């Protein structure tokens, strides 16, 4: 693929080519026509306009010109704040005051309007970059009056009065993804010009600050992740939420058996607690939503050959429900084999994003024409569950945001603990990093897909999660939405008094003060799920527990309470039995005698 084709593909991935339903006459030079009543923007012309705008901004930066970035869309705030920080420009917000340009030459006359006006820039900017042009026509008028050049995003419905005053128009859909791409190009352009200017002046010495700034750009250029906390609320009108849910279908991929923990059968059918399995919890969630909003969300189970028969037997206890099972065929596996993650092939260069083979979940639906049937029924979005993640919540708020912003694909990710510790910004301001390296994120095996985009992904061979993460929209969700069942230590947490399940959704016990879950390490004798059940008569109370480490031949009674840091190690030939009602707080147990004096 040529460089030009690669850039055009990036523009298409950001939906830059999707215009509005109205196409003004002066915008037709950028239009390729319409489809379904929506204007289609020519991506080649968008690219040309981006180059012209960046060349102009670069020329100004070479001469230390003053740039002003104007935005009123809260979705873009974090992107622009990170950009201005990276290029070393103050994020001036004095433009929010009406007349800030035309009155800037005589600020003393207007002290009474806003005292903060006195600390604004004493000179007018040399260029204004506007990201939501339609909302800030007043700024454009002032800039035109003072003959200040304007770089702005324009769309097919913009009136001529506004469009004619923009010096460097960039025709594109002002989606979050495109604004991020545009800001990234501006950032790289300005830093490149600054480096070249330093080289001309002989200022070749690179300081630690310069290195950190370069590192910031290299890292932030890798991924923009949108915080879950900033999603708008769903409409209060129940009928509108029902219309939203009527566009959704849930697809659960059952590709793993429980053999790693000694369970004979599909892991999704293994009991988690209270007689419920992971599959039961998903069905309970769907039934709760259907009852609340009057919807009828279908559930499709894509099963491997090994799991299909037992899952059908399991579903016998859920009769007369909108549940459908699809078995992988030989052709499905053959089609999916080119996309097998490197870890499954035994290769060392594993990408942590590729936790499962996405193609194995997609091809059975495509080859069996299931997607065409769903599309004909008015279904537009798929919520794909790739593993037995009990923290997954079918959230109408996410679906509403995707539909409103025409986002075709969304991956749910959560920050790794190391990323959270290193990022002061994530802790103090937005709870999750906004522009961070890909390695800071963990895919939670949950993704949302527009049904119409699936065939495009198949045709272009984009069925690898790591590549989709690089190119598509990602949503940072709380750690509470990632509760995998990979070992008996996970069962220990989920079966304890730390969690209860309400309508299929895990609910954390509010009595626990520590926001994070305790660290649980169980030795090899607990690895098998049957042995795990036998060694615990009942799961201890762990509301005050920080960490638990158990190794060797250890048995637990009922009514036990663990607090603080507890370590129990039974050496070779040693058997330790924790009596009923024992309370262990910050204790290290190595033999039965160490339990003497424990409160009970």
Automatic annotation (TrEMBL):
It catalyses: alpha-D-glucose 1-phosphate + UTP + H(+) = UDP-alpha-D-glucose + diphosphate. It is an enzyme of class 2 (transferase). Coiled coil: none annotated. The keyword Cell cycle does not apply. The keyword Iron-sulfur does not apply. One of its GO terms (biological process) is UDP-alpha-D-glucose metabolic process. GO terms for molecular function: structural constituent of ribosome; UTP:glucose-1-phosphate uridylyltransferase activity. Keywords: Nucleotidyltransferase, Ribonucleoprotein, Ribosomal protein, Transferase. Its EC number is 2.7.7.9. It holds the Pfam family UDPGP. It comes from the Eukaryota. One of its GO terms (cellular component) is ribosome. InterPro entries: Nucleotide-diphossugar_trans (IPR029044), Ribosomal_uS2 (IPR001865), Ribosomal_uS2_CS (IPR018130), Ribosomal_uS2_flav_dom_sf (IPR023591), UDPGP_fam (IPR002618), UDPGP_trans (IPR016267). Residues 326-350 are annotated as: Disordered. Belongs to the universal ribosomal protein uS2 family. This is UTP--glucose-1-phosphate uridylyltransferase. It comes from Perilla frutescens var. hirtella (Perilla citriodora). The lineage of its organism: Eukaryota, Viridiplantae, Streptophyta, Embryophyta, Tracheophyta.
């Amino acid at each position: 693929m040529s460089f030009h084709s690669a850039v055009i593909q990036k523009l298409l991935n950001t939906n830059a080519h999707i215009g509005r339903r109205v196409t003004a006459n002066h915008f037709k030079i950028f239009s390729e026509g319409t489809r379904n009543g929506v204007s289609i923007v020519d991506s080649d012309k968008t690219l040309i306009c981006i180059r012209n705008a960046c060349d102009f901004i670069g020329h100004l930066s070479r001469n230390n010109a003053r740039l002003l970035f104007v935005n009123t869309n809260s979705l873009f705030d974090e992107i622009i704040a990170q950009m201005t920080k990276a290029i070393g420009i103050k994020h001036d917000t004095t433009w929010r005051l009406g007349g800030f340009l035309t009155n800037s030459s005589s600020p003393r006359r207007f002290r009474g309007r806003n005292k903060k006006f006195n600390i604004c820039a004493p000179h007018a900017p040399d260029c204004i970059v506007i990201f939501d042009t339609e909302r800030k026509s007043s700024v454009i008028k002032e800039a035109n009056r003072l003959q200040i050049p304007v770089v702005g995003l324009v769309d097919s419905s913009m009136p001529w009065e506004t469009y004619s005053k923009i010096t460097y128009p960039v025709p594109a859909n002002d989606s979050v993804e495109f604004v991020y791409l545009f800001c990234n190009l501006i950032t790289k352009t300005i830093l490149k010009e600054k480096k070249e200017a330093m080289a001309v002046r002989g200022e070749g010495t690179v300081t630690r600050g310069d290195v950190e700034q370069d590192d910031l750009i290299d890292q932030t250029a890798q991924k923009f992740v949108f915080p879950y906390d900033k999603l708008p609320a769903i409409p209060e009108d129940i009928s509108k939420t029902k219309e939203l849910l009527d566009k959704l279908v849930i697809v659960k991929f059952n590709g793993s058996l429980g053999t790693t923990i000694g369970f004979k059968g599909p892991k999704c059918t293994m009991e988690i607690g209270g007689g419920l399995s992971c599959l039961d919890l998903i069905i309970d969630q769907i039934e709760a939503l259907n009852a609340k909003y009057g919807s009828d969300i279908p559930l499709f189970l894509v099963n491997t050959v090994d799991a299909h028969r037992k899952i059908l037997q399991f579903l016998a206890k859920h009769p007369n429900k909108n549940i459908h099972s699809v078995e992988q065929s030989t052709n499905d596996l053959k089609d999916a084999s080119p996309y097998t993650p490197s870890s499954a092939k035994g290769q060392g260069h594993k990408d942590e994003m590729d936790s499962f083979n996405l193609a194995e979940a997609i091809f059975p639906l495509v080859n069996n024409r299931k997607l065409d049937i769903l599309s004909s029924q008015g279904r537009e979005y798929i919520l794909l569950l790739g593993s037995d993640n009990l923290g997954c919540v079918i959230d109408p708020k996410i679906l509403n945001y995707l539909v409103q912003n025409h986002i075709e694909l969304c991956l749910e990710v959560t920050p790794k603990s190391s990323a959270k510790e290193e990022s002061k910004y994530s802790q103090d301001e937005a709870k999750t990093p906004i522009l961070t390296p890909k390695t800071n994120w963990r895919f939670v095996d949950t993704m949302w897909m527009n049904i119409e985009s699936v065939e495009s992904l198949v045709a272009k061979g984009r069925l690898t999660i790591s590549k989709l993460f690089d190119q598509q929209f990602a949503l940072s969700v709380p750690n509470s939405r990632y509760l995998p069942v990979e070992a008996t230590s996970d069962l220990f947490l989920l079966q304890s008094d730390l969690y209860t399940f309400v309508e299929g959704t895990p609910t954390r016990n509010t009595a626990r003060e520590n926001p994070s879950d305790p660290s649980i390490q169980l030795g090899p004798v607990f690895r098998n799920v049957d042995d795990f059940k036998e060694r615990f008569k009942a799961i201890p109370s762990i509301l005050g527990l920080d960490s638990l480490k158990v190794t060797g031949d250890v048995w637990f009674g009922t009514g036990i309470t663990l607090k603080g840091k507890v370590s129990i190690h039974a050496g070779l030939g040693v058997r330790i039995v924790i009596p009923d009602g024992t309370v262990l707080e910050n204790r290290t147990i190595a033999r039965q005698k160490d339990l003497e004096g424990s409160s009970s």
